[in-house]
Amino acid sequence: MTNPIITVENLSYAYNGRPAIEKASFSIQEKEFLAFIGPNGGGKTTLIKLLLGLLKPAGGKIRIYGNPPEKAAHRIGYVPQNVAFNKAFPISVFDVVLMGRLRFQGRSRLSKSDKNAARRVLAEMEMLGCQNRRIDDLSSGQRERVFIARALATDPDILLLDEPTASLDNAGRTELYALLKEINKNKTIGLVTHDMMVLSSYVSSVACVNKTVHYHGSAEITEGMIESGYHCPVELIAHGIPHRILKTHEDQP
Predict the structure, then answer these.
(1) Rounded to the nearest 5 degrees, what angle is found at the Cα of 19, between the Cα atoms of 16 and 20?
(2) pTM of the model
(3) What's the number of domains the chain is made of?
Protein backbone atom coordinates (compact mmCIF):
# COMPACT_ATOMS: atom_id res chain seq x y z
CA MET A 1 0.00 0.00 0.00
CA THR A 2 2.26 2.75 -1.29
CA ASN A 3 -0.10 4.92 -3.34
CA PRO A 4 -2.81 6.39 -1.07
CA ILE A 5 -5.76 8.05 -2.78
CA ILE A 6 -6.19 10.54 0.10
CA THR A 7 -3.32 12.18 1.96
CA VAL A 8 -3.70 14.62 4.85
CA GLU A 9 -0.61 16.48 6.02
CA ASN A 10 -0.33 18.68 9.10
CA LEU A 11 -3.99 19.70 8.76
CA SER A 12 -5.45 22.36 11.07
CA TYR A 13 -8.79 24.15 11.30
CA ALA A 14 -10.38 26.46 13.87
CA TYR A 15 -13.82 27.94 14.54
CA ASN A 16 -13.57 31.57 15.71
CA GLY A 17 -10.06 30.97 16.93
CA ARG A 18 -10.90 27.72 18.75
CA PRO A 19 -8.98 24.73 17.32
CA ALA A 20 -11.15 21.94 15.91
CA ILE A 21 -8.44 19.98 14.08
CA GLU A 22 -4.76 20.31 14.96
CA LYS A 23 -1.80 19.08 12.91
CA ALA A 24 -3.55 15.95 11.61
CA SER A 25 -1.66 13.66 9.25
CA PHE A 26 -2.85 10.34 7.81
CA SER A 27 -3.57 8.64 4.50
CA ILE A 28 -6.32 6.45 3.08
CA GLN A 29 -5.77 3.65 0.59
CA GLU A 30 -8.00 2.63 -2.29
CA LYS A 31 -10.95 0.43 -1.20
CA GLU A 32 -10.21 1.02 2.46
CA PHE A 33 -13.15 0.99 4.91
CA LEU A 34 -12.17 3.56 7.53
CA ALA A 35 -14.16 4.38 10.66
CA PHE A 36 -13.73 7.82 12.23
CA ILE A 37 -14.39 7.53 15.96
CA GLY A 38 -14.06 9.94 18.88
CA PRO A 39 -16.04 12.06 21.35
CA ASN A 40 -18.78 14.48 20.38
CA GLY A 41 -17.17 17.81 19.52
CA GLY A 42 -13.86 16.12 18.76
CA GLY A 43 -13.81 17.24 15.13
CA LYS A 44 -15.07 14.21 13.17
CA THR A 45 -17.67 16.10 11.14
CA THR A 46 -15.27 19.00 10.65
CA LEU A 47 -12.70 16.58 9.27
CA ILE A 48 -15.23 15.13 6.83
CA LYS A 49 -16.17 18.64 5.63
CA LEU A 50 -12.50 19.45 5.11
CA LEU A 51 -12.09 16.29 3.01
CA LEU A 52 -15.12 17.35 0.97
CA GLY A 53 -13.75 20.84 0.41
CA LEU A 54 -16.72 22.40 2.22
CA LEU A 55 -14.26 23.98 4.66
CA LYS A 56 -10.84 25.45 3.90
CA PRO A 57 -7.88 24.40 6.08
CA ALA A 58 -6.21 26.99 8.29
CA GLY A 59 -2.98 25.07 7.81
CA GLY A 60 -1.62 21.96 6.15
CA LYS A 61 -3.02 20.34 3.03
CA ILE A 62 -5.32 17.63 1.70
CA ARG A 63 -4.81 15.80 -1.58
CA ILE A 64 -7.41 13.47 -3.12
CA TYR A 65 -6.11 11.63 -6.18
CA GLY A 66 -3.38 14.24 -6.19
CA ASN A 67 -5.77 17.21 -6.25
CA PRO A 68 -7.19 19.56 -3.63
CA PRO A 69 -10.67 18.50 -2.44
CA GLU A 70 -12.60 21.03 -4.52
CA LYS A 71 -11.12 19.56 -7.70
CA ALA A 72 -11.93 16.00 -6.65
CA ALA A 73 -15.51 16.64 -5.47
CA HIS A 74 -16.97 14.73 -8.44
CA ARG A 75 -15.21 11.58 -7.20
CA ILE A 76 -16.78 11.71 -3.72
CA GLY A 77 -20.29 10.79 -2.59
CA TYR A 78 -21.45 12.23 0.74
CA VAL A 79 -24.22 11.26 3.16
CA PRO A 80 -24.52 13.98 5.84
CA GLN A 81 -25.87 13.43 9.33
CA ASN A 82 -29.61 14.04 9.82
CA VAL A 83 -30.53 14.75 6.21
CA ALA A 84 -33.28 17.37 6.25
CA PHE A 85 -36.32 17.20 4.01
CA ASN A 86 -39.71 18.87 4.01
CA LYS A 87 -42.29 16.28 5.01
CA ALA A 88 -45.02 18.46 3.53
CA PHE A 89 -43.41 18.24 0.08
CA PRO A 90 -44.54 15.04 -1.72
CA ILE A 91 -41.20 13.97 -3.19
CA SER A 92 -40.71 10.38 -4.25
CA VAL A 93 -37.79 8.08 -3.49
CA PHE A 94 -36.86 8.09 -7.18
CA ASP A 95 -36.75 11.89 -7.30
CA VAL A 96 -34.56 12.07 -4.20
CA VAL A 97 -31.97 9.85 -5.87
CA LEU A 98 -32.21 11.83 -9.11
CA MET A 99 -31.17 14.94 -7.15
CA GLY A 100 -27.73 13.37 -6.90
CA ARG A 101 -27.52 13.30 -10.69
CA LEU A 102 -28.54 16.96 -10.94
CA ARG A 103 -25.66 17.96 -8.68
CA PHE A 104 -23.29 15.88 -10.77
CA GLN A 105 -24.50 17.12 -14.15
CA GLY A 106 -24.82 20.76 -13.09
CA ARG A 107 -27.98 21.17 -15.13
CA SER A 108 -31.72 21.14 -14.59
CA ARG A 109 -32.79 18.55 -17.17
CA LEU A 110 -32.38 14.83 -16.67
CA SER A 111 -31.61 12.27 -19.36
CA LYS A 112 -32.50 8.62 -19.77
CA SER A 113 -29.02 7.68 -18.55
CA ASP A 114 -29.60 9.72 -15.37
CA LYS A 115 -32.81 7.80 -14.68
CA ASN A 116 -31.15 4.47 -15.40
CA ALA A 117 -28.35 5.35 -12.98
CA ALA A 118 -30.90 6.19 -10.28
CA ARG A 119 -32.67 2.86 -10.74
CA ARG A 120 -29.36 1.01 -10.66
CA VAL A 121 -28.27 2.39 -7.30
CA LEU A 122 -31.76 1.92 -5.84
CA ALA A 123 -31.52 -1.73 -6.84
CA GLU A 124 -28.07 -1.99 -5.23
CA MET A 125 -29.52 -0.58 -2.01
CA GLU A 126 -32.50 -2.98 -2.26
CA MET A 127 -34.91 -0.05 -2.56
CA LEU A 128 -36.02 -0.20 -6.20
CA GLY A 129 -39.42 -1.54 -5.18
CA CYS A 130 -39.98 1.68 -3.19
CA GLN A 131 -39.02 4.11 -5.97
CA ASN A 132 -42.55 5.55 -6.29
CA ARG A 133 -43.19 5.90 -2.56
CA ARG A 134 -42.92 9.23 -0.77
CA ILE A 135 -39.69 9.62 1.15
CA ASP A 136 -41.55 10.54 4.35
CA ASP A 137 -43.51 7.25 4.22
CA LEU A 138 -40.34 5.20 4.71
CA SER A 139 -38.77 3.89 7.89
CA SER A 140 -35.52 5.43 9.17
CA GLY A 141 -33.52 2.53 7.77
CA GLN A 142 -35.18 2.78 4.37
CA ARG A 143 -34.59 6.53 4.19
CA GLU A 144 -30.92 6.07 5.02
CA ARG A 145 -30.59 3.63 2.13
CA VAL A 146 -32.21 6.16 -0.19
CA PHE A 147 -29.79 8.90 0.91
CA ILE A 148 -26.87 6.54 0.32
CA ALA A 149 -28.31 5.74 -3.12
CA ARG A 150 -28.44 9.48 -3.84
CA ALA A 151 -24.74 9.77 -2.91
CA LEU A 152 -23.93 6.80 -5.17
CA ALA A 153 -25.96 8.05 -8.13
CA THR A 154 -22.87 9.63 -9.71
CA ASP A 155 -20.81 6.43 -9.27
CA PRO A 156 -18.16 8.10 -7.06
CA ASP A 157 -14.89 6.42 -6.13
CA ILE A 158 -15.17 7.45 -2.46
CA LEU A 159 -18.20 7.39 -0.16
CA LEU A 160 -18.17 9.48 3.04
CA LEU A 161 -20.95 9.04 5.60
CA ASP A 162 -21.58 10.95 8.84
CA GLU A 163 -23.23 8.67 11.43
CA PRO A 164 -25.60 6.92 9.01
CA THR A 165 -26.81 4.45 11.65
CA ALA A 166 -27.56 6.94 14.45
CA SER A 167 -31.35 6.54 14.15
CA LEU A 168 -31.39 2.80 13.39
CA ASP A 169 -32.09 -0.14 15.67
CA ASN A 170 -29.69 -3.09 16.03
CA ALA A 171 -31.12 -5.02 13.08
CA GLY A 172 -31.13 -1.93 10.87
CA ARG A 173 -27.50 -1.15 11.71
CA THR A 174 -26.38 -4.67 10.92
CA GLU A 175 -28.21 -4.68 7.59
CA LEU A 176 -26.77 -1.31 6.60
CA TYR A 177 -23.22 -2.30 7.52
CA ALA A 178 -23.59 -5.44 5.39
CA LEU A 179 -24.65 -3.31 2.42
CA LEU A 180 -21.75 -0.91 2.97
CA LYS A 181 -19.35 -3.85 3.12
CA GLU A 182 -20.64 -4.93 -0.29
CA ILE A 183 -20.21 -1.39 -1.66
CA ASN A 184 -16.67 -1.41 -0.24
CA LYS A 185 -15.68 -4.07 -2.76
CA ASN A 186 -15.60 -1.34 -5.40
CA LYS A 187 -15.36 1.93 -3.45
CA THR A 188 -13.39 3.50 -0.63
CA ILE A 189 -15.54 4.26 2.42
CA GLY A 190 -15.04 6.69 5.30
CA LEU A 191 -17.62 6.46 8.07
CA VAL A 192 -18.15 8.62 11.17
CA THR A 193 -19.60 6.48 13.96
CA HIS A 194 -19.90 5.85 17.68
CA ASP A 195 -20.89 2.22 17.10
CA MET A 196 -17.35 0.88 17.37
CA MET A 197 -17.86 -2.67 18.56
CA VAL A 198 -20.27 -3.47 15.73
CA LEU A 199 -18.07 -1.79 13.13
CA SER A 200 -15.05 -3.80 14.20
CA SER A 201 -16.60 -6.66 12.21
CA TYR A 202 -16.78 -4.61 9.01
CA VAL A 203 -14.12 -1.89 8.79
CA SER A 204 -10.49 -2.33 7.82
CA SER A 205 -9.03 0.63 9.74
CA VAL A 206 -9.89 3.19 12.40
CA ALA A 207 -9.01 6.87 12.92
CA CYS A 208 -9.49 8.25 16.44
CA VAL A 209 -10.39 11.93 16.14
CA ASN A 210 -10.18 14.33 19.07
CA LYS A 211 -8.68 17.50 17.53
CA THR A 212 -5.68 15.39 16.62
CA VAL A 213 -6.05 12.23 14.52
CA HIS A 214 -4.58 8.87 15.51
CA TYR A 215 -4.74 6.45 12.57
CA HIS A 216 -4.77 2.68 13.12
CA GLY A 217 -4.45 0.33 10.15
CA SER A 218 -6.53 -2.32 11.88
CA ALA A 219 -10.20 -2.71 12.77
CA GLU A 220 -9.46 -4.01 16.26
CA ILE A 221 -10.70 -1.71 19.03
CA THR A 222 -7.99 -1.63 21.70
CA GLU A 223 -7.56 0.18 25.01
CA GLY A 224 -4.74 2.23 23.48
CA MET A 225 -7.00 3.42 20.69
CA ILE A 226 -9.66 4.50 23.14
CA GLU A 227 -7.12 6.40 25.22
CA SER A 228 -5.70 8.14 22.14
CA GLY A 229 -9.14 9.19 20.91
CA TYR A 230 -10.86 10.00 24.20
CA HIS A 231 -9.34 11.93 27.07
CA CYS A 232 -12.26 11.44 29.47
CA PRO A 233 -14.74 8.69 30.41
CA VAL A 234 -16.77 7.64 27.37
CA GLU A 235 -19.73 5.44 26.62
CA LEU A 236 -19.37 3.00 23.76
CA ILE A 237 -22.13 1.12 21.96
CA ALA A 238 -21.49 -2.58 21.57
CA HIS A 239 -24.34 -4.32 19.74
CA GLY A 240 -26.77 -1.83 21.23
CA ILE A 241 -25.48 -2.18 24.80
CA PRO A 242 -23.76 0.86 26.40
CA HIS A 243 -20.37 0.21 28.03
CA ARG A 244 -18.80 2.96 30.12
CA ILE A 245 -15.00 3.18 30.26
CA LEU A 246 -13.90 4.86 33.47
CA LYS A 247 -10.15 4.27 33.62
CA THR A 248 -8.10 7.31 34.70
CA HIS A 249 -5.75 8.42 31.95
CA GLU A 250 -2.15 9.50 32.53
CA ASP A 251 -2.97 13.21 32.11
CA GLN A 252 -5.77 13.07 34.69
CA PRO A 253 -5.38 13.28 38.48
Answers:
(1) 100
(2) 0.85
(3) 1
